[in-house]
Amino acid sequence: TRRAASGCPLPVLSLSLTPLPSCVALGGAARWSFSRAPAMCASGGGLFARIGAAFSSLSARLDEVQGDAAALNGKEFGEACKALVPLFGELGVALKFAGDDFVQKVEGLLERSPEGSTIGQQIDKDVADGKAKEKGSVTRDVLRITRGLDFIRAFVEALLAADPAEESLVDPAWKAYEAELMPYHAWVVQTAVRAGIYTVPYRSTFLQALGLSEAEGAEVGPGVVADLTKCSAAVRKIFMTKALGTDW
After folding, report:
1. Which comes out higher in pLDDT, residue 219 or 17?
2. What is the Cα–Cα distance from 41 to 8, expressed in whole angstroms?
3. What's the burial of 185, exposed, middle or buried (CB within 10 Å: 0-12/13-18/19+)?
4. May I ask which residue range the UniProt record assigns to the signal sequence (predicted)?
C-alpha cells in the first residue's frame, strides 16, 4: 500500500488515460506529445541525461548573454523544455493535465518564435498589442512553460533529497505540485491530481525510466537541478523587469 501524502485526501473519482504515441505525423510536420515511453522524438542517452544536456546548453547560452533570458530566441528555450516532456509522461495519469498543457505551450512557443526574434521582443510586442495575458500569446506560453519547468525542478529536488529506502513518490510529487502548479489550477484539476497522485510510479521504477542509478542521481542530479533553477530564474526575471509579474 502506498503511503498517503499528508493533507491529500483521496476523493472518489474515475480517471482514464489513453496513451499517445511519442511522434504523430500531422500536416507534414512532426507533432509530438508526452507518453509513458522514456524516449520522445529523440535518441541517444537516458531521459535524465538528455534533460541534463538540454539545460546545460541553455545555461551556457545564458552565460553568453550575461544571464538575460530576454535575449534568447523562443526556440532556444522551447527546445530545452521539450526535453522535459517525457518526464511528465513517466509520472502517469496524475499529471496528465499538466503534461498536456506543457506540451501545448512548448509547441506553441516553437511555432511562434521566428528566427532573429528574441523572447524579450516578442513579449514587448504582446504588451504593445494589449495581448500579453491572452490565450495564445507568447508571453502567456513562456510563463506557463516556466511553471512546468519549476514543477519538474521541485520534484527532482525532492526525489534526490528523499530517503532512497522509501519507494513511494507520492509525497515528493504532491509537494512539488502543491508548490508550483496547484495555485494556478481550477478545483476540478486539483481534484483529479489528488486522485491520481497515488498512481505515480515507485522510486526504483521511476529512476529506471530516467536511466539513473541511486549513485548516478546523487552525483549528477544536483547539477541538473542547479541548471533548471538558473534557467527558470532568468526567465522569471523578464516578467518582473517588464512589470508583468508571474502570479496570473
Report:
1. 219
2. 35
3. middle
4. 1-25
Is the pLDDT at 18 greater than 80? The verdict is no
pLDDT tens-digit map of 166-184: 999 999 999 999 999 999 9
Rounded to whole angstroms, the Cα distance separating 65 from 222 reads 24
d(Cα 29, Cα 217) in Å, to the nearest integer? Answer: 35
Please tell me the predicted confidence (pLDDT) of residue 5: 44
Give 237-246 pLDDT, tens digit per residue.
Answer: 999 999 999 9
Yes or no: say if 198 and 10 are a contact pair by the CB < 8 Å rule: yes
Which residue's entry shows cell 498589442? 129
Which domains can be identified in the chain, with CATH numbers?
A: 46-241 (1.10.3520.10)
Nearest to 33 by CA among 79, 86, 74, 90: 86
Contacts of 84 (CB under 8 A, 6+ apart): 51, 102, 148, 149, 152
